[in-house]
Amino acid sequence: MHILLVDDDAQGRSFLAEYLQLLGHLVTPADSVDSALRITEEHSFELVLSDIAMPEKSGIDLIYALQAKALEHRPDIVLYTGHVDLQLAIDALRAGAFDYMTKPIKLDELTSILERVAAHQNIRLSAPDHGHKHRHKSSFQRKEEHLQEVQDMFSRLAGVERIGIFSEKMWDVVHQAEQYHTDRSMPVLIQGETGVGKEIIAKIIHYGTEHSSLPFVDINCTAISPTLFESELFGYESGAFTGGVRQGKKGKLDMAMGGTLFLDEIAEIPVELQAKLLRVIEERQFYRVGGLRKNKTDIRIIAATNLDFEKRIQEGLFRKDLYYRLKVGHITIPPLRERQEDIAGLALLFLRKFSKKRGKQFESIHPQAEKRLVSYHWPGNVRELKNLMEWVSFMHDGTELLEKHFVKQLSPQKPCFSTPEKKRVERKRPVSNADILAALEECGGNKTKASQLLGIALRTLYYRLDKMAS
Ligand SMILES: Nc1ncnc2c1ncn2[C@@H]1O[C@H](COP(=O)(O)OP(=O)(O)OP(=O)(O)O)[C@@H](O)[C@H]1O
């Protein structure tokens, strides 16, 4: 890579330059932000590696100045600083830095960042070209190679199932998650529509880069009744309930000790439990149901929601103090339709995975089919795309995914049922699994239509289907 190295300290600069050259990179040094900006007018770089604190302008000023320039090729920017300051790191990442390091720079950390920048730059260079069929195909093949590289890296880093990241917006999200991983005391709130990948990001925050073997315990706040919620979360002492286990039971807080408690769908936690949860987070201790002894906690809290928190607060359904306590760290995952660069890569990843599982041949996606996938609005986000690819590899076979394989499954932009509200009011009993299957059949497998027919949220339908499948 061609690296622009910006540091006012000549000694530090030459030490770093020497190391980067030893790794085979071409290094251009600069001693200030202004001189770096002048150099970028004549040369193009894959990486700008810069100190944050410099006498006149800072590394963060450099990010903004580079963003304002119409560069032919956009470099990734990595900043470093002598102060361990999480806020500064967050500011740098928010400004658009690719990553952040603290001095003294650890060479293995630097090497791993360089590898990630190289993979990221490769993805940029292989952005799909929709103009010409043959160019399109070769760019797709290049993308497949990089996809492999990136997936391998993520399965290694996060210790979770293979994930695909192809858009800059998602790379930014992943970098923020890795940054939050470094401070366990900071609660993190993840917001985003249903199916965008909030749980995956929660796992990256938890597992981080060193494959944490500490527990990751999740609790779905919508799936448990208020009475059970308390015993699920706090556990109970022996004799607390008639019918409870004689020797008592550990709660999720106990199970998550030393690790992470992931509170999914947090905005829907009953109001009466919010004060108790706030107390646990603030005091880091809790009572079991029926217990007299205080138990200490040492857990990281990550919460997620797809609801509008501000609205819940205004409606009196969520405590403001708990909201602010949870969102000390904060990540928003954009919906899939706002990161279209992810769609083709993820579709191919899922298509191959499910084809392999079912002994089918699917290997690639026809450009017309890709165009259709990319232009669809994906109300169920990545989960909907994943389910669609599973359905296709179940129903069809071939080497290339064609538009006709899936087009009938896509829901129209506008719901086809004009009176979903009326239907919702008419339903008096809870939706059973049989109702769900019947609705899906009636709607030809289209989940958006089926959820409207049933009068339940699309995400509730996905949740119920996941439960039925497991
Ligand atoms: N980047 C990705 N790569 C691979 N799979 C992904 C990615 N993002 C999401 N998925 C898959 O999509 C599905 C939905 O993701 P996840 O459960 O993390 O979403 P969520 O935002 O937590 O949804 P909900 O709000 O409904 O709980 C999962 O099966 C997950 O594995």
UniProtKB/TrEMBL annotation:
SMART domains: AAA, REC. Keywords: ATP-binding, DNA-binding, Nucleotide-binding, Phosphoprotein, Transcription, Transcription regulation. The keyword Transcription regulation applies. InterPro entries: AAA+_ATPase, AAA_lid_NorR, CheY-like_superfamily, Homeodomain-like_sf, HTH_Fis, P-loop_NTPase, Sig_transdc_resp-reg_receiver, Sigma_54_int. Residues 2-118 form the Response regulatory domain. It comes from the Bacteria. Gene3D superfamilies: 1.10.8.60, 3.40.50.2300, Homeodomain-like (1.10.10.60), P-loop containing nucleotide triphosphate hydrolases (3.40.50.300). One of its GO terms (molecular function) is sequence-specific DNA binding. One of its GO terms (biological process) is phosphorelay signal transduction system. Residues 167-394 form the Sigma-54 factor interaction domain. This is DNA-binding transcriptional response regulator, NtrC family, contains REC, AAA-type ATPase, and a Fis-type DNA-binding domains. It comes from Desulfobaculum bizertense DSM 18034.
